[in-house]
Design brief:
The protein is of the alpha/beta class and about 270 residues long. Helix content is about 30%, strand content about 25%. It is built from 8 helices and 9 strands. Strands 1-2-4-3-5-6-7-8-9 form a 9-stranded mixed sheet, sandwiched between helices. It is globular and about 45 Å long.
């Protein structure tokens, strides 16, 4: 890893310059969380999808981190049961973008630019983020963490997604192994795409805290995976939604804990 990439990783894995507010999406009729900078006009916004059985609070550290770098992030808390509907959750991710662009958040001093919207998610939520991007032309960039296949198919939808994509796959993922999920999604991606492997990460490595689902799902919260996820998603969305190249060296290099899968990575 070059010196500049290391410096970018160290900077972007730390909290950003903005004070952060967080609240409850239920105030606008949808369970879930929203994190924002304390103030700002024309901010970019990201809708974030949780993994199967996971509450949004397991991603609060990531949501707050992105908000500290100037993003509004909304994470619906719907479809958390064992028989979650991927189609309905995708609709909720799109509705979260409607909330971001149509409601004055915080104390009324925050507004979102409707031309700077992204989608992201973990596992099931990652697959649904792909579906949302395929269905909603407002989405300008997509990032996934240990993405899993969905019904309707995220793999089929990837053929229709022409915006930049970043996919982080966990090498020790027994639930959504990259060979059957992130790799074919990246291979099918219609736009520029990067696939990165985190060889030591497990399926739940990107989550924080403890949850009863660890009894039935593989893996646990892992600080190293969360740190890599924070830095790379920040660099990616800074570039794609804010035209900010502070993380350019990081996006173009291997870093400790993750390597670019060159076979499944394509530039524009």
């Amino acid at each position: 890893m070059g010196r500049t990439a290391k410096k970018a990783f160290e900077e972007l894995s730390r909290r950003g310059p903005h004070d952060v507010l967080h609240g409850d999406l239920s105030l606008v009729g949808m369970p879930g969380l929203v994190c924002t900078p304390r103030s700002g006009a024309g901010l970019p916004a990201i809708t974030f999808g949780h993994g199967w059985l996971q509450p949004p609070r397991r991603y609060l550290a990531l949501l707050r981190h992105l908000a500290s770098w100037g993003f509004v992030v909304a994470a619906p808390g719907t479809q958390r049961g064992a028989l979650a509907s991927h189609r309905l959750f995708t609709a909720d991710l799109r509705t979260a973008l409607d909330v971001c662009t149509g409601v004055r958040l915080g104390e009324g001093g925050i507004s979102v630019d409707p031309d700077r919207l992204g989608a992201a998610g973990h596992a099931m939520g990652g697959g649904c983020a792909v579906l949302a991007a395929a269905e909603d032309e407002r989405v300008r960039a997509v990032a996934t963490l240990a993405a899993s296949e969905t019904r309707p198919s995220a793999l089929a939808a990837a053929h229709r997604v022409r915006v930049p994509g970043l996919h982080l796959a966990a090498g020790n993922d027994l639930l959504a192994p990259a060979v059957a999920n992130a790799e074919p999604i990246a291979r099918a991606w219609a736009g520029p795409v990067q696939l990165r492997m985190l060889p030591k990460a497990s399926h739940l490595g990107f989550t924080t805290g403890r949850h009863w689902s660890e009894l039935v799902l593989h893996g646990r919260s892992e600080y190293a995976a969360q740190r890599v996820g924070k830095a790379l998603l920040t660099a990616f969305f800074l570039r794609t939604l804010r035209e900010d190249e502070r993380g350019a060296e990081l996006l173009d290099a291997d870093v400790a804990g993750t390597k670019i899968d060159r076979e499944h990575t394509r530039s524009a």
